[in-house]
Amino acid sequence: MAASTKQRNINSRSFDKQIPRQRQEKQDLEVSETSVHLSPPWTPSGYTAFKVLLSARLCAAIWSNISDCDETFNYWEPMYYLLHGYGFQTWEYSPAYAIRSYAYVWLYAWPLKLYMNVLGPNKILQFYSLRCLLSVVCALCETFFYKAVCRQFGANTGRVFLFLMVLSAAMFISSTAFLPSSFAMYTTMVAMGGWFLGNWPVAVLATAAGAIIGWPFVAVLGIPIAFDVLLRRRQLWCFVKWSLVSLVLFLIPLVQIDSYYYGGLVIAPLNIILYNVFSDHGPNIYGTEPWTYYFVNGFLNFNIAFPLALLSLPFVLLLDFVLSQPRKEIPVWLSLSPMYIWILIFFTRPHKEERFLFPIYPLISLAAAASVDYLQKVYARLRNSKRKSMMHYTECSYLLAVAFCAVFGVVSLSRLFALYHGYHAPLDVYAEFQQKVLTASEEDSKLSETPVNVCVGKEWYRFPGSFFLPLDNWRLQFVKSEFRGQLPKPYGPGPRATQEFPSHMNDLNAEEPTRYINVSRCHFLVDLDVQTATEFEPRYSQNLKDWTAVVSAKFLDNPRSHRFFRAFFIPFLSNRYVKYIDYNVLQSSRTGKRFRIFS
């Protein structure tokens, strides 16, 4: 009896040991079906990712358009003034308002200053050299963020994310733009990358840099980081310490530089907030857009990835619950929340512009990639629900990711070709015009001595900047058009022009007639030959008596082109459904005939 009892006790203890072991084996099997503990799939190394990203960004530097006149007149022109002593000043740079930062402009200007001293004065090369430098900076930030995404979300999400970043039309547009929102995009990637990697100092410093140097509103993207560091991890001293370091590193130098250029104490980030949030009129005077604007823009730039990104948070939370995914160091809902915070704020504002979404473009790609990854997990679970499988979930669901990436890639390339073919003419025309004038100036000294007026009317907002004017004595002038807003004006003479209060300038976007010259004083005129004419926008190109086209390129005629085919380029079909008109540089037969540049 004693022996029997002892044997039962041994068997009982053995059975008790088997219960957790069997439970663990069952759990391991379930995990193997969702493939969390198996070897992760292959992902490109950081070096490989950087090379691919850099190749894509260099293409953007050379072939992307300037899609926003703010980039030209609020950033390229002030930098041209700092480097060459001449350029256009907008009301934002008037000391009366001071809502733009010269410190930010100098951040981009000093590499060109070095370039000018070492490699020469070619202005178009200066323009494209800076763009290429921005492509390197962007690719580095993207690579850092990519490695962090692999750490936080897994290898499969990381490689889908990398693919989206490389081919995204949104990144093609924003990556090399000279805009604070693009700078904020760089710092957002660094901040999120530091957060995902557990490097809180980098996360705090990058968020502060984006908000102080770039665009103050980007600080809201740091709210989830602050929540994680302060409330979840209780790292109050770490957060406060690096916030104070940020103020010393970024805010104090910025205030010193801006105060010097404006001639008085200026805190540009604060002025931006006061104007946009607390002024009587705010930015709405520059136009409002319907609630659908960003949804259309999002689909154009991200196509099928955009709806997946918008649905990512509820989708991922639901599937996390259904699939019983292991908990991450940073909850998925928290790591995806910055994109939703930005959407909640900016999608509800009446004044909408594409560049306002630049800071979250990488986050949209991340959210879409996370959705694709979870779709693969769901497919693998359903496929293996009736059989035990030890394969990684990507092995049986990779075709889903391949199909998604293939469609996304094809549509994105179609969008990029449409943008280049339809809207690149201004950069091409100004570049060719400059090259021909420079060639002729080697034989005719008058070209570099006599003041020359290059005029724009309705095409003022497509002017790519003074870097594209041939010589220092060639100046842009405005002729009256149907536009009734305020145009920029040249900086005043002298090194202290930035401290002077310019006359005839307002913050109400009210037209200033002093900006215009009579068209009879123009030596050259840049104009788009649209099919309709008005009193102030005649078809100059058709007036062969007074004007001769000397440089021309094809530009998309939006009103006469099919909406779909002007947005996406389809080989063999697009040319049947879109119309092109001439983008011309016209030479005056009166004032321009003495310049024997074009025969």
The gist of it:
The protein has 21 helices and seven strands.
Architecture overview:
- The protein is α/β, with parallel strands linked by helices and 599 residues long.
- It has 21 helices and 7 strands.
- It has helices at residues 2-34, 46-63, 69-84, 102-119, 123-153, 155-167, 169-174, 180-196, 200-214, 223-232, 236-262, 268-278, 293-302, 305-310, 312-323, 332-346, 361-383, 393-423, 425-441, 563-567, 574-577, and strands spanning 88-89, 452-456, 474-478, 489-490, 524-528, 547-556, 580-588.
- A 5-stranded mixed beta sheet has the order 3-2-5-7-6. A two-stranded antiparallel sheet has the order 1-4.
- α6 (155-167) packs across α17, α9 runs parallel beside α11 (236-262) and α15 packs antiparallel against α16.
- The chain is globular, with a radius of gyration of 29 Å.
Through-space gap between termini: 120 Å
**Tell me about the biggest sheet?**
5 strands, mixed
Q: Could you give the order of the helices and strands?
A: HHHEHHHHHHHHHHHHHHHHEEEEEHHE
Rounded to an integer in angstroms, the radius of gyration calculated over CA atoms is 29 Å
> How does the overall form come out from the CA principal axes?
globular
Uncertain stretches of 5 or more adjacent residues: 1-37
Average pLDDT level = 90
